[in-house]
Please model this.
Amino acid sequence: MPATTSLPPVAILGAGSMGGAILQGLVRSGLAVDGVTATNRTAAKAAELAQLRDVTSIALETHPTGNTDAAGAAGVVLVGVKPAMVPDLLREIASALRPGTIVVSLAAGVTIATFEGILGPGIPVLRSMPNTPAVVGKAVTGLAAGSTATAADVAIARALFETCGAVIELPESKIDALSTISGSGPAYVFLLIEELTKAAIGKGFSEPEARLMAEQTFIGAAALLDATGEDPAELRRRVTSPGGTTERAISVLHAARLDVVFESATDAALARARELAAGA
Model:
């Protein structure tokens, strides 16, 4: 589906932080020409979204049938409620969905089988795993198709998520592994910035100076990587002059076995993702 192709009516059920970020991307893109309906539990949260262009924002506390009304009128339904609430929501909207309506999960740990078991074979299901940079249009979203989702269904879902970043299509079996890299990855980057800031403070810089140096270095390095398209290892080599200060620092980091640290960290995240999926 070309990026310029408009999307069918979209419903976001539970437009919290992630659903709200995707909503912002849809509005910015202009692809949602048939409108977006967003539901939230409270009137206060609904009021925050009501000012967005082409968005109908519904508060469930004043409009109890909002989820079924929104789902019944949509061509694509994003399920953004908390994972524990998903089965009840699916049972609530199942009879309202029109055949062929695409249902996309934003809920971590809830399988496609759970969705398909409740919604039945007439509803194509996809499972997604966006990350928090969706808020600024820089997400990485993993997208896995269910058993009845067609290539056209996947193309529509892909176009939707591309309004807030990049998309990787993958089998559902890899969703948890993806979550340990792109899902948790922003936290790893923020931790590195925290630690580099502490190191700068330890060398006598004020906290504002330390934050500026650490944060802008990461922002600038990421922008350089994006602008050049170079392999990060090559960009690192260009900074690392033989016999220089950076080479000495990199040797310390290599000695600390960062490769092992990151492998162990992502393995631990994957183990926990599987525990959560199993209800542990």
